[in-house]
Amino acid sequence: MIRGYSGAENLTLEDDIEACIIKLLNLIRYRTIGFGKCFGLLNTDEDPDEYIESIHKGLKVSNIQVALGTCNKGFYKMSMLNNSMVEAREKEFNKQKSSGVVQRADMLTSFMKKGLSGDDLKAENTLQIIAGSDTTAGALRGIMLYVVTNPRVYKTLQAEIDNAVASGKAPRAPDIIKSSQVKELKYLQAILKESMRIFPPINNQLARDTPPGGDTVTIDGQEVYLPGGISIIPAFKSMHRNKSVYGEDADVDVFRPERWLEETERLEAMKNDINLGFGHGRWLCLGKAIALREMGIILFELLRNFDWSLDNPEKPWNHAVLMGLHSISDMWVHVEERAELQ
Ligand code: HEM
Questions:
Q1: Looking at the predicted structure, is the pLDDT value of residue 180 above 50?
Q2: Beta carbon of 61 within 6 Å of any ligand 1 atom
Q3: Which CA distances in Å does 135 have to 4, 65, 121, 321?
Q4: Cβ–ligand 1 contact at 127 (below 6 Å)
Q5: Could you tell me the domains of the chain?
């Protein structure tokens, strides 16, 4: 399945992301929205099938049910919608396959080509929606909050964006920047890293149990015995503020993307530290490349096209952590078309 997630067999990935971003920009331009309700369903700016609501309800219900040890029905509506969509795509795929021409080259097609079908295909898709939507949406809201509330960062980023367009390193509007071009924007990339550090999209989750007989692991060259039958949960917020990684004199509680451009010796360790937010080894996030691609392009286009400020800086949003994910609503912003669009 890695070929579907990586884009190797998902040939329309960049175009699909681009199409969604154009819809998002038009939505902001013509209907004026806040970040509280802009994820998905970009055609109508509504949630007619209660799709988003179902995910959020699911997270809330899961939070309680996991604590009580009962089953979870909270995601019902979202997974029913997902199942009917997957069934329709599977029918289409099988029909096209028997005629010898499979027209689409997206992630679902890649999974089906590899033999995933029926309940397995539905389960993979439901997992992907839960794993891929509120993680990335929470991360983006965090990025926007930290950028909008830091005039130095805001100005530096917008200058980098404008320079990239002026020097031909990014296309002129209304064309959308390509992910290969976003990768070259050093300050924007530093912002993505700094946001992962200070506002990790997943918190207090991802427990792993030690084997019943315990285990011995090596940490910083020292052998450490872990007793059996305990759960170990990474605390990203503390790990990402660890002065032994970021420097004894590092201002670890401050949002300062510049640290990623100034550091040399510590840089590798810092990158390894924040990359843990995407899991590690066999648990590595399959959508990491997609998430980074989406976040980079969206951040570029939001700041290239518009100017942003918070409606209520004293209470920028309603925020809760549910099942380790940021559940954010009512992030109301004032958006203005930039006078001299690059
Ligand atoms: C900023 C955004 C994201 C973050 C921080 C993130 C983080 C993670 C983490 C930490 C895991 C490992 C979970 C574990 O150890 O149990 C994971 C797994 C996963 N993620 Fe992401 N993720 C993000 C976006 C996405 C996106 C956009 C997709 C899909 C398009 C996605 C798909 C998945 C899948 C399918 C898994 C399960 C992999 C497996 O089966 O082992 N993620 N993610």
A1: yes
A2: no
A3: 19, 21, 21, 11
A4: yes
A5: 2-337 (1.10.630.10)
